[in-house]
Amino acid sequence: MAWIYLVLAGLLEVGWAIGLKYTQGFTRPLPTALTLLSMAASVGLLGLATKTLPIGTAYGVWVGIGAVGAALLGMLLFGEAATPARLFFLALMVAAIIGLKVTAGH
Which of 36, 42, 49, 62 is most open to solvent, judged by the fewest CB atoms within 10 Å of its CB? Predict the structure, then answer.
């Protein structure tokens, strides 16, 4: 169950990272409320995951999911650069996330 919590926490992190763009500096009430709710839920689920997973693994996977997801959505939604080098390094991050999962022992 901890891994499910962790993946959901990571996906919510993607949501709030992208949501930050839509808050326009926290000046838009609805996007701001949704972003803050996503932040709280993400951290809450991360906390549940760390009850049984090592903190280094849980935090690394959480940040990795958030970073990869935000970068990919930035490319899709906001036209950010999708250069071969950038995609290569995102793939390395995915490999690191998988490596942390495989070596976690849970």
Answer: 36
